[in-house]
Design a protein that fits this description.
Elements (H helix, E strand, L loop, with lengths): L7 E5 L3 H13 L3 E5 L2 H6 L7 E4 L8 H9 L6 E5 L4 H9 L4 E4 L4 H18 L10 E4 L2 E4 L4 E4 L2 E3 L3 H12 L7 H9 L7 H16 L10 E3 L3 E3 L2
Helix pairs in contact: 4-8, 6-8, 7-8
Length: 234
Amino acid sequence: MNAEGRNRILIADDSEEIREIIEILLTGEGYEVLTAENGQKAVDMVDDTIDLFILDVVMPVKSGFRACVEIREKTTAPILFLTAKAQDSDKTMGFSSGGDDYLAKPFSYAELISRVKALLRRYFVYQGKVSLSHSTKLASGDLTIDTVSKQVHLQGKEIFLTDIEYEMLTLMLRNRKKVFSAADLYEQIWQEPYYYSANNTVMVHIRNLRKKIETDPQNPQHIKTVWGKGYYID
């Protein structure tokens, strides 16, 4: 967020026309917009004032996927992929690299604005910029969450989650022993109706979360799987 309190969004796309269209659209909604013509420039521009990244996948110098991995090393701000590549395998790759959402070209302006607002709203709740009515401390063995500060610790060491990973973890911790299906998680976290291929989206985020909080992700001690039904924390 900039000094004037406006959300700052970085758009990286090798099409000047697309950058201009999105910049005009978002500026009209009150956002401050930065632009980059390739993935490397987007990575170089990362700082803690940027609240959202919109990345094309196919860009010169550095792809959106590669840029996403490097951006995620520096910030937990949400990343929206905006691309013509809309196959499930591409979506899985995007989420595996650390992305939060995926919007295929051609897209409607209303849909883009809706996704941007939803990602920013989720991010600001995660960052503690919006107060929650049920703030408390949550724990599962050596894993603890302070929902006031939004800090997550494993064996006393702070770990950093994306906002979607944080929401998934707190949802399951607040509802221990409840088995959440992929549809349950998708609809509660993404706030959208579930569709079949969204199952891959949930699976990738669960896998990424396990890599961060499990000593052995292949033998998870926190997030358990009930085959054919879903996930739970006991």
